[in-house]
Amino acid sequence: MGNIILWSTGDTFRQIIKISGEGDPCSSIGLWNDLIIGGYGSGHLRVYSATTGKMCVEASAHAKWITAIDVAKSTGLILSASEDTFARVWKLSSGSNVKMELVHSETIADLQLQGAKFISEDGRAFACTGYDSNEIHFFTKA
Q: Any idea where the WD repeat-containing protein 54 beta-propeller domain is (predicted)?
């Protein structure tokens, strides 16, 4: 359960890498450079090499399911949203020693977050939606 499978394309699809979810459902994924970012039902955020399938870094990012992930391609920022009411922004560094650092966190009281998206390409603004709500919450960095 929760496996991430990479396929090669062409005339036919061929499985090239299978990353084990370790029993946790993988509810959202993102890609940045040679990295795959997975958000899990356990609240973990895991980063894998797309070349080898090996885990590079892991964080206990949220207290509940991660429901959305987005990546600001130009900066390596990751946005994660969860049923725990938190949206968090992480800074990802690539290279031989991948690192991930929490750089910002927002909470929307009494709202299980279900969607999140960077509004700007560099990650300076993002929006979130929640379960059973007709509002979109916007956040911008001054």
A: 2-140
